[in-house]
Design a protein that fits this description.
Helix 9 (254-270) runs parallel beside helix 10 (291-304). The chain contains 11 helices and 9 strands. By secondary structure, the protein is an alpha/beta fold. The protein has one domain: Glycoside hydrolase/deacetylase (TIM Barrel, Alpha-Beta Barrel), CATH 3.20.20.370. Strands 1, 2, 3, 4, 5, 6, 7, 8 and 9 form a 9-stranded parallel beta sheet that branches. The chain has helices at residues 59-66, 74-78, 86-96, 110-113, 122-128, 137-148, 165-179, 197-204, 254-270, 291-304, 312-318, and strands spanning 44-51, 101-105, 152-157, 185-188, 209-210, 236-237, 242-243, 274-278, 308-310. The radius of gyration is 19 Å and the shape is globular.
């Protein structure tokens, strides 16, 4: 069924219009259908992590000034990096017996890639400074470790790439050279999305699914309960249900935030939905109290409710695609549990 709602540029949020299978949002009584796995499970929970900033750099100074908190310099003085949480997430998911996707960003550099007139924008320093490089040996090693361990490596399209097909193609090919096999899907940085043009770019460069459609200031099933095909072909959209920092009062009232997550899980079960969650790796650090515990409880409770839990690429591979759909891409692995 074709998607006809247009969400221009920046963020595809609920304020821009409710989009689902028929373009009108989730409906009471709706029951999603999502392939053979759906016959064996009450709902699906796709786990995703957008790797934006694995290194804490200018943030120490920024938060020290903003919050008048000299303790923000503590990590810098000690040579510690609280944003590097890959091993923590891997250990946690190993304990739960699940896997997830890590969406890898290849962002442009402000001083290298942008014209001089853009150097004087505070917003641009926030967007482009303090990122990481796919030439970094530590980043390359952790990508290989994740891939070898059964985690999905996916694309996190850079800030401007949602409307730049060649930029997006370059980022995908660069990541594929690092990981050594094709990339199946991913999510755009900052949820930047132009519907349907961004998805046409994705499809043209060989991506088979996208998880961008969602909100960075609200949570829920405003875009429907199941995946859908905007072009009536093999390309699939998995709407984003919840991003960690949209939850209310996580630091001060974690039980209230948990009640919201449990409500989403129950709604997913009641509608046989595909629910997609995003937890940025830095939110597993001690700097962000209670977020790691909430993630653990989310996954644990979903498993107790007989949900299928895993990365979107694996769920995509299990779907019944149209007869002319392309074959499953080489290199897509089934989950391996420790």
């Amino acid at each position: 069924m074709r998607l006809c709602t247009h969400v221009n540029a920046a963020n595809a949020t609920a304020e821009n219009g409710h989009v689902s299978h028929d373009g009108s949002g989730a409906h009471a009584g709706e029951r999603a259908e999502w392939g053979p796995l759906g016959a064996d499970h009450s709902f699906a929970l796709c786990l995703t992590h957008d790797v934006d900033r694995p290194y804490k750099t200018y943030q120490s100074l920024y938060y020290a000034v903003k919050h008048r908190d000299p303790d923000q310099f503590r990590d810098w003085w000690r040579g510690e990096n609280p944003y590097w949480q890959f091993e923590h997430v891997m250990q946690l998911e190993d304990e739960l017996g699940v896997r997830s996707s890590f969406n890898i960003l290849n962002e442009q550099r402000l001083l290298r890639d942008k014209p001089i007139r853009e150097w004087f924008s505070i917003d641009n320093w926030k967007l482009y400074a303090g990122r990481y490089s796919l030439d970094d040996p530590a980043i390359v090693d952790v990508i290989h470790d994740l891939d070898a361990g059964g985690w999905e490596i996916a694309l996190h399209g850079s800030y401007d790439s949602y409307d730049d097909r060649e930029r997006l193609r370059h980022e995908k090919e660069t990541l594929e050279r690092v990981v050594g096999h094709p990339i199946t899907g991913g999510r755009q940085h900052y949820l930047n999305l132009n519907v349907p043009r961004t998805w046409k770019h994705h499809r043209a460069i060989g991506l088979q699914y996208d998880t961008t459609l969602g909100s960075n200031d609200s949570y829920g099933f405003q875009y429907g309960y199941g995946p859908y095909r905007p072009f009536d072909d093999a390309f699939v959209v998995f709407p984003l249900t919840v991003m960690e920092f949209t939850l209310p009062n996580v630091c001060t009232d974690p039980e209230g935030a948990w009640r919201e997550l449990e409500r989403l899980l129950e709604e997913a079960r009641d509608h046989h939905a595909v629910m997609t969650a995003l937890w940025h790796p830095r939110y597993f650090s001690d700097e962000h109290a209670n977020y790691a515990d909430l993630y653990y409880r989310l996954v644990e409770r979903a498993l107790e409710m007989d949900a299928w839990v895993g990365p979107p690429g694996e769920l995509y591979a299990s779907l019944d695609h149209p007869p002319d759909a392309a074959a499953q891409p080489a290199g897509l692995r089934q989950r391996r549990h420790a």
